[in-house]
Amino acid sequence: MVSLQIWMLIVGFSVPMIISPGPGNTILATAGGRFGVRGTMPFWFGFEAANFIWCLVYGFELSRVLHDVPGAAHVLKWLGIAYTIYLAYGFVKPSKGNKKTAMPRLTAIDGFLSVSLNPKIHSMIFVLFSQFLRPGISLAQQVLQITFVFTVLCIVCHFPWIYGGRVVFHRFSDEKSAKLQGYLFGGCMAAVALVLAVTV
To answer: pLDDT band at 51, cuts 50/70/90?
Structure first.
């Protein structure tokens, strides 16, 4: 059983990392602004499912492959940048036409890929397990408990980003505002891609 002290450290580490601005939260906020909370649910489900699965991968030490092959992290970085640019294009493209050309809602697969191709999330989960697993306690028990708690924290911390995006942009529903939102959301995604390219 993981001790209370370790749980406090895990929560203290995880919450600021999860809730802080970054590529994932930017995508969640823009999806919430464009599709609303209900319309974002499939994407959000895939997003959190990926967090859960990657926790299991890292927790059970399958991540040694990525750790031992430095080139894998580099490839992951550029795949993530390319996917973020693809999302940016998806938001900007409908602003060039009418409502019939509106961007289709993001799917669970989109959510899963957004997490899987995000280097920040891989780094965070890697540190989570490398720092907080303890010898003398069942590895499976620790990994499952930490994975469950981390996933719950993700759900709780990501909801305000989705809801906040919805609240901020809900009042702007006319065609002109929709076009402006498309450019704004696409610009946010493009900025995220640029930051990833020059800093990560």
So the answer is: very high
CB-based burial of residue 65 (10 Å sphere; 0-12 exposed, 13-18 middle, 19+ buried)?
exposed
Buried b / exposed e over 16-30, threshold 16 CB at 10 Å, is ebbbeebbbbbbbbb
Mean pLDDT, range 35-61, rounded to an integer: 92
136 C-beta neighbours (distance < 10 Å), count: 4
Q: CA-CA distance, 164 to 161, in Å (whole number)?
A: 5
Alpha carbons 180 and 199: distance in angstroms, whole number: 28
Inter-helix orientation angle 4-19/139-169, to 10°: 30
Helices (H), the chain: 4-19, 23-59, 64-68, 70-92, 108-116, 119-132, 139-169, 175-199
Inform me whether the pLDDT recorded for 62 exceeds 60: no
Domain-wise residue ranges, the chain: 4-15+34-81+100-176
Report pLDDT for 41: 95
pLDDT of 102 strictly over 60: no
pTM of the model: 0.71
Give the percent of the chain with pLDDT over 70: 70
